Queue: 3 jobs
Job 1
Amino acid sequence: MHAFQPTFQGNMAKDGNFLLEMMKHRHPMSSNFPTILLFIFIQFAASLAAADAKDTLLSGQCISRSETLISKSGVFELGFFAYDGWYNLGIRYKNLVERSPVFVVQYALDFSDRATLCFLKDKLYTIDDYYLSEYVLWSSEGNGSAASVAILLDTGNFVVRDEMNPSVVMWQSFDYQGRGDALQPGAWIASDTVTGASIMTNTNDFSPYYCTLQIDKRRKRGFAINVGRSYDFGGASYGYHGTFPDWMVTYKEGVDSVQLNVPKSPNAIEFLKLELGQVSFLRWSGNGNFGTWQTLWSFPSSCSISPFICGAFGACTQAGKCRCIDGFKPTLADEWDLGRFTSGCSSIHPMRCDAENSFTTDTFVLLDNLQGLPVSEYARDEPATSSEECKSACLSSCYCTAYSYNSGCKIWQLKLHNLSLADSPPYSSIYVRLGSSREKKGLRKLQIVALVFCLLVAIVAGGSLVFWLYKRLSSRKMKVEGFLVVYSYAQLKKATGNFSYKLGEGGFGSVFKGMIAGSTVVAVKNLKRSGYGEKQFRTEVQTIGMIQQTNLVRLLGFCAEGTRRLLVYEYMVNGSLDSHLFSDNSSALSWNLRYRIAAGIAKGLAYLHEACNDCIIH
C-alpha cells in the first residue's frame, strides 16, 4: 500500500481542477527500502478563474502586441492584429483566426510589434515604443466621470464604463468601427464625422483607388458607395447608391444613422464587408476554420453597375458577368465559384524581372474590345514614336502591366481595374503584359544542367545528413519503460536551460519548467537526494506511471542516473491554487467556482481511494 503526503506548489493547474503534488510513500513489500518522492496532480478550475479576468482591463493594466482580451463567451478577442500590412488595434472572431475579418477599433492607426494598449481610470490609450508615439482613444478630460473598467463584451463591443453603474458607457468601439472595411453586428454607420462617418477601405494590392461607404441622408436606410483615385481625391469618382434591406439594419430617425442588426441565431457569425465598388453582408458557414463565407446580400449585384467588383484584371461583359481577361485566371477560385469576384485575377505566367535580358521573354495579349481605356493614377504618357518603342518602354519597367499605342504611347503600371468589354463599336484596345512560358534555348539548357547538378549535390548531401542524424539519434535515443520515457540527466538539464526557470519549491525538491522534443513544455521535479536504490525507484515510478485519470496529471518520464532522481510531468499553465485564492493580482473566485474546484479534487481522490488498482494512502 502506497503512502503519500499531499502538498500544493509550483505551476500545476490544468483545465478546471487543481494539481495535487505527489507524495512520499513506501513499496508495500519492502518496508526496509527508503521512501520515494512521487507526485500525483489533481486538476482544478484555475483556467476558469483566469478566464474571468481575460475580458477586462482594470486601471493600470496593459496588454502588449502578443496578448489579447477575450470576451467571456469566448467568441471575440481584441488585440493588435495584422491589417493592410500593418498592425491595427482590432476585434475578431476568436475561433476563426485567419479566416476572421478584423473589425478595426480606430482606423489609420498603424502599430509596430512593440505596441501596447493601456487603461487608467481617466484614459484609454496606446503606446508604441518603436514609433515613440502615444494615442489617446478615450479620456475623461477632467470632467470627474472617471471610468473604472475597460471590457470586451460578448457582443464584440469594447467599452469603457463605470464600474458601479455598467449602463454608463463613456466610450465604445461600435462608434468608431466604421473606419475599417468591416462592420460587426451592433456597430453603427452614422453621418456624424466624429463617430463612424463612413466605413472605408484602402486596398492592400497597390490599387489606384480608394472606396468609401456613407449614409445617404436623402433616403431611409440609404447609402452611397464612392470610388475615387487614391492620390487624386479631386479626380474621377464613381458613385453607386443603394438601400440596406430592413432585415439587415435598424434606421435611427433624426440622426441619419443605421445600426447593423444582431443575428437572430445566437451562433450565427455575420458581418458587413466593403470591397472596391461593392458592399456585402456575409455569414460564416462551417465548423471552426473549416468553412466559407456565404453572401446573403450584396450591392451592386451586377458588374454592369460597377465593373470594379470584377477585381484587378477582371472584366465585365455586356451580360453583366465577370470574367478574367485572356492570359489570366481567378486569384481565389473558390470565391469566384461562390459569385464573389473582388479578389480579381492573376497572370497564368508570372512576369520575370532580372537584370539582363529579363524582359524579352515576356509577352502581351491584345484586348481590342474594351469599352474605353482604364482610368488610373498610375497611367502615364511616353515619348515613343512607334508601337515597338511603346512596348519597349513598358518592358523596361517591372511595374508596367499594359500599354496602348494609338495617337500616342501610354503605359499603365500596377494592377488594372474597372475594365468593361463592349459588344459593338467604338472599341478601345490595349496590350496587357503576360509572363512567359518559354525561355531562350541556351538559357533553358543551362538551367537544366544546373538543375541536374543541384539535384545530385542535394541527394548526396541529404543522404549524408540522414546518415549522420541516424547515428546521432541512435546514440541519444530515449529508452521507454512501460508507459514512461527514461531521460538522461544531460537531456533534462538542457531541456530546463540548466534548471534556470524555477516554478516552485517544496519539502521534496524543486520544480522547473522545461521543453522536450523541441516543442513540448513539461514540469521537471528535481528530487532531493536520499538513500533509496535505483531498482526500487524504477518500480515505484512504473506503478505511478500506469495511473490514468482525467483529474490527474500524467507522469511522462523520469531520470535515474547515479544518485540523481528526477520526474517529468505535464506542464500546467495556469498556476497553483493558492495563487488564485490569496494573490492580490487575481480576481476573487466565485462560490460556484470554488464548489467546482472542490468537486474536481474529490474526483481525483475518489479515484485514488477506490478505482486505482494499486491502493494509495495519502
Job 2
Amino acid sequence: MGDVWLHGKVTMDQLGISTLLVKEADIKLAESVRERLSTGELP
C-alpha cells in the first residue's frame, strides 16, 4: 500500500516538474518571438 502511494507521489512530482519545464520553454519561445516582431525580423 505504501509503495503504491509513493509511486503515485513520484509520478505526480515528475508531472509537475515536466509541466513547469514546458511552461518555461513556452515563455522563452514567446519572448523570442516578441523580440523578433519588435525588431522586424518576422513578416
Job 3
Amino acid sequence: MGDQSGRQQLSHALSDLLARSGMTKSQLASDGKLSRTTVHAAFSPDSPPPSDRTLELIAEKLDADPVPLRNLLAIARNEEAAQPRESSVIRVVTEQSEGVLSTYRVETPPDPRLDKYSFDPLRPENLVRSVVQRLRAGRAYELAEAAYWATKPGIYAIFYTGANQLYAPIAGSPIPLYVGAVQSASGAGKAYSRQHTVGQRLEEHRRTLEQSRDLDPRDFMFRVLFIDDLFMGATIDALTTQFKPLWNTTIEGFGNRNPGKARRLPRPKWHELHAGPDSWAADLESRWDRAALVEQVGHHFWAWYHEDTE
C-alpha cells in the first residue's frame, strides 16, 4: 500500500472492515441513518474524503476503532489540499434520510472538451494563425499591378501560374513560391525590405523576373495583407514553416540585391538557375551546378508533398 494515496488507503480500509462485518453498503446506510450516496462516496477512492461525522458513524456501525481511520482521513485531506485545483465542477449536496441531514461534496472531473474547445483569440499563436488565414483568403493580383496601389507596409506571398516544368508541381496552386514582408522601418533578414511599401518591393521582384532567362513576370501573382510590424516576423515564420516556400528555403537568393563591386560574392542559387545576361548576378562567380539545383527543386517538392500527406 506504499504507493497508494491516503484516500485510496482509507477506501481500502473501509472496504476491509465492511467485508469483515458481513454488511452491505445499503445496510450500513440504513443502520447509520446515512444516505446511500454518502456511504458509496465514502468508500470510493475517486470521491473527496468523507466528513468527520460520516466516518465516525461508519466506524461505529462496523464496530471498528475510529483512530486509524481518522489518521487516514487526515492524510487524504492533506494530500487533497496540496494538489493544484483544476476547473472541476463541485456541488454541495444535502440529503435527508430518516430524519438525518447529510451534507457532502460531489466533484466531477473537468470534461476534456473544455480544453478542446477553449480558444483565446488574443494568444500570440492564434493572432498569427488568423493573419495567415486572412492572407491566404485574399484575392490574387498580377505582379505588375502592385506598384500602383500596394502603397503600404505589409506581408505578401508570390505564386506561380506559368508553364515552366520546374515549377509544375505548384503552378496554379495556393502554395507560395516566396513570402516576404515590408516593414514601416528598416527590417532585418532576407525576407524583409528596406523599402516602405509592398508595391515598391514587388516592383523590384518583377524587374528581377524580367531579367531572368526563363521566367516571365506575367506568370506570377501575389497576395498581400497590410499589417502592423509587430506581427510580421511571426507571420513570415509561420508561412515558411507551413508551406516551405521554395525561394525562401531550398533555392535562396530571389530577394537578394546587388551587393556592388566592393563585395563580390558567389552567385546565389536562384540566380544560378534563372539569371539572364542582364542580371546583376550574371558576372558573379558560379558556385553551384545547375543540374544539381534542378534536382534539389524536385526533391523539395517531393519532400513537401510527402510530409503533407503523412
